[in-house]
């Protein structure tokens, strides 16, 4: 029997595209870096960068500040080296007995070792090539997949120290992976991190330097920051998707848009059935369109009759069974102004009204990772540099002289007060703080913390029975604070485009003790209304985790997000 290797990719299409916005990738690296603080970023680009194209994504990520690249397989790592990414450290961690370790050494790839046989294989390859190996030791701190237990690590240490002393290997650091970092407040995450810290400590005391350790994935970065490790390994966040939608808008911009050119439109009579087994019948005379993308290209067939496709800014329902090569869209009786060749958006960043990969995942009860990785078949990938949309344009690191975005678990009232005091340090006269969140979420307590941090006079109480209270500066020439109840001020005006003006007019009309421009204005609720008035505002969202009484806050600076909108 003979085995031979063939092509693994279907012939690319001239009508079905995955368009990857490299500006979004760069932007998202910046967002991840803000969460990471002093910890550096290893961009995880496995699985062809989650379907985004590993070579271009890697180059963009490195240019945007990532310092290393993380791959699952040797082949992925090798592809990057062969593409001319010669300087960046590249690590791979999923390899087997058939992996050509000698080639990996020649290509100066870093190897993760998760089992003793792998160490043996590396040492043999080092002997054969005379090239010393750069190793990361993979520990199982609680993921329950590959890696050494802490006991095995301690047992292995003498051997590793010997190999390091002989110059055959350099142990750069330790890595481990979190099992439950996307569950806010799950103590397993802290326990795992502590496990890695203890192991690093043991290793260092045995004489290893271990100066490139990493544990965090995207979810851990979002909820725990860099955790004091030298590196973090975000994947999904780089592609602009949050693994924890319950944290709200974190300023991530999805980088991948999947779209296809409409093949044809046709009148479709009432009562007629569409596609296999006539899962859908036209309730009235209508017009349908064919979109050339099917399950062979990565649309999950379970999305049948649930999808919506966006064409020329309008959403149209997909109808009838999803086929191998195509879907059918109901345009309605007037045909929706759609003609052949129009671009039909399957999913993207939502800026054209289209669904997102997260929406798709929610429709069929999976995770967005699976949705983006499934894009393939005959899809042709292409790249663009499209500035991130205005509402999100706030987040490049330079645009934030005021301070980073963040997330904080709030277990006690004191936690909330303390967060307010810390945020106050970022504020100056003329700034607006928008406190968003349900009644009882802790907005007034946070406002009190801010007032304490600013050092203004008077005690902050709920503004519910007045429209606004002003607090004079605590020191002459200092900053004051105006505490506003936007629920009352803007009652019924939520969707009114003039609500922001109305708010300022109302505030001006009030006889406040301090000038607005000399104060920090803290507005309870008013999200989407107040930001459009001011150069920049700090938006703080207070929320409860679903299914528990755990609270958390997220915050981010928004720079006049509506300036460029019509
Ligand atoms: C995939 C992967 C990551 C990245 O995880 P995200 O959830 O996408 O951030 C990090 N580390 C390892 C070992 C991985 O396999």
Automatic annotation (TrEMBL):
Residue numbers spanned by region Disordered: 385-407
Highest taxon of source: Bacteria
PROSITE patterns found in the cross-reference section: ALANINE_RACEMASE
Keyword Thylakoid included in the entry's annotation: no
SMART domains reported in the protein's UniProt record: Ala_racemase_C
List of catalytic residues: 46 (proton acceptor), 276 (proton acceptor)
Modified residues (N6-(pyridoxal phosphate)lysine): 46
Record domain Alanine racemase C-terminal: where: 255-384
GO terms assigned for molecular function: alanine racemase activity; pyridoxal phosphate binding
Residue positions binding substrate: 145, 324
Catalytic activity entry: L-alanine = D-alanine
Cellular component, GO annotation: cytosol
Gene3D superfamilies to which the protein is assigned, alphabetical: Alanine racemase, Lyase, Ornithine Decarboxylase, Chain A, domain 1, P-loop containing nucleotide triphosphate hydrolases
Name of the protein in its database record: Alanine racemase
Source organism: Lawsonella clevelandensis
């Amino acid at each position: 029997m003979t085995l031979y290797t063939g092509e693994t990719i279907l012939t690319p299409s001239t009508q079905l595209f995955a368009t990857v916005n490299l500006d979004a990738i760069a932007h998202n690296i910046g967002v991840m870096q803000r969460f990471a603080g002093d910890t550096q970023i290893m961009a995880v680009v496995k699985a062809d960068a989650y379907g985004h194209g590993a070579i271009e994504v890697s180059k963009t990520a490195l240019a945007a500040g990532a310092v290393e690249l993380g791959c699952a397989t040797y082949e992925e790592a090798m592809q990057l080296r062969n593409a001319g990414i010669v300087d960046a450290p590249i690590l791979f961690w999923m390899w087997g007995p058939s992996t050509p370790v000698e080639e990996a050494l020649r290509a100066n790839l870093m190897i993760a070792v998760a089992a003793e046989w792998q160490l043996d294989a590396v040492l043999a390859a080092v002997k054969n090539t005379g090239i010393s190996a750069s190793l990361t030791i993979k520990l199982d701190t609680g993921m329950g997949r590959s890696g050494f237990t802490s006991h095995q690590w301690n047992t292995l240490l003498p051997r590793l120290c010997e190999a390091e002393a002989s110059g055959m290997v350099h142990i750069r650091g330790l890595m481990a992976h979190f099992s439950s970092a996307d569950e806010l407040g799950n103590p397993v995450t802290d326990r795992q991190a502590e496990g890695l810290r203890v192991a690093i400590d043991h290793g260092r005391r045995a004489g290893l330097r271990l100066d490139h350790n990493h544990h965090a994935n995207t979810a851990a970065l979002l909820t725990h920051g860099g955790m004091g490790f030298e590196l973090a390994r975000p994947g999904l966040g780089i592609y602009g998707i949050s693994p924890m939608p319950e944290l709200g808008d974190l300023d991530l911009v999805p980088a991948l848009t999947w779209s296809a050119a409409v093949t044809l439109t046709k009148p479709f009579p009432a009562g007629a059935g569409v596609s296999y087994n006539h899962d859908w019948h036209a309730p009235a005379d209508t017009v349908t369109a064919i979109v050339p993308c099917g399950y062979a290209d990565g649309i999950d067939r379970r999305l049948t009759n649930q999808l919506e496709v966006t064409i020329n800014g309008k959403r149209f329902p997909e109808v009838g069974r999803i086929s191998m090569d195509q879907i059918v869209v109901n345009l309605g009786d007037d045909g929706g102004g759609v003609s052949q060749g129009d671009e039909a958006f399957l999913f993207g960043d939502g800026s054209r009204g289209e669904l997102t990969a997260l929406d798709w995942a929610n429709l069929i009860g999976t995770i967005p990772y699976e949705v983006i990785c499934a894009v393939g078949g005959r899809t042709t990938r292409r790249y663009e540099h499209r500035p991130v949309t205005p509402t999100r344009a706030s987040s490049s690191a330079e645009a934030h002289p005021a301070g980073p975005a963040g997330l904080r678990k709030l277990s006690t009232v004191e936690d909330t007060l303390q967060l307010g005091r810390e945020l106050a340090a970022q504020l100056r006269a003329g700034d607006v703080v928008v406190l968003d969140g349900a009644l009882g979420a802790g907005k007034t307590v946070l406002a009190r913390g801010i007032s304490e941090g600013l050092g203004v006079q008077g005690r902050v109480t709920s503004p519910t029975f007045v429209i606004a209270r002003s607090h004079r500066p605590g020191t002459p020439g200092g900053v004051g604070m105006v505490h506003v109840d936007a629920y009352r001020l803007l009652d019924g005006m939520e969707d009114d485009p003039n609500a922001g003006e109305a708010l300022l007019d109302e505030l001006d009309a009030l006889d406040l003790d301090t000038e607005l421009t000399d104060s920090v204005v803290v507005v309870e609720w008013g999200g989407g209304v107040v930001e459009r008035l001011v150069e920049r505002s700090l938006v703080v969202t207070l929320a409860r985790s679903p299914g528990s009484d755990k609270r958390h806050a997220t915050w981010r600076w928004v720079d006049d997000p509506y300036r460029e909108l019509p």
